[in-house]
Amino acid sequence: MGTKPSVPKITAQDRAILDLKLQRDKLKQYQKKIQIILDREHAIAREHMAAGQKDRAVIALRRRKYQQSMLVKTDTQLENLEQLVSTIEFSLVEVSVFHGLKQGNEVLKQIHKEMNPETVEKLLEETQEAREYQTEISAMLANTLTTDEEEAVQEELEQIQAEVIQEEKGQEVQLPSVPTVQPVISEREPEVTESNHGKVPVLVE
User: Fold this and answer.
1) What is the CATH number of the domain that holds 19?
2) Quick one: which of 72, 82, 129, 171 has the most CB atoms within 10 Å?
3) Which residues contact 58 (CB under 8 A, 6 or more apart)?
4) pLDDT digit string (tens) for 144-199?
5) Rounded distance, CA 28 to CA 196, Å?
């Protein structure tokens, strides 16, 4: 009987490399899909600013910044894990790698939840349920964003405000100015023409 070919053993390092690749592929898919959500949140912020609802515009922009930061941080974390996996002494960092993979899966689940278009539209709605959701999001994000992220939100808010003001100025109807000088009507002397009955004054136009 012939000997069976040996099956290569899958090591913990191989499994970690595969898991990381799957997570990064999924993250890239989410990045493309969530861009639609980010664009919509920006548009909602503009609508609120145009309506004079600055506080609600801030909520939309904070949620947008939170999602953007989540994507960037997760991508950076996975990139760092890839570097750890590629180290020669993988056994020394194995626990850290698998802990990072577990965290990565949890964050990906959270990102997936953020991709729900219905929750985005609640930022614009006026229903009681929508108001409660807006309050909940505002409270949650108040202690989540970093100082730099909050500054970025305020800068984007100012930019949107300037754009809205510029658009409103462009839409103003330019009425003609009222003349301040009365028009002068020239009076012409009637010319005298001759006829068979004598000279008759005739007004020539």
Assistant:
1) 1.20.1280
2) 82
3) 45, 153, 157
4) 888 899 899 999 999 999 998 888 887 655 555 555 555 555 555 555 555 555 55
5) 104
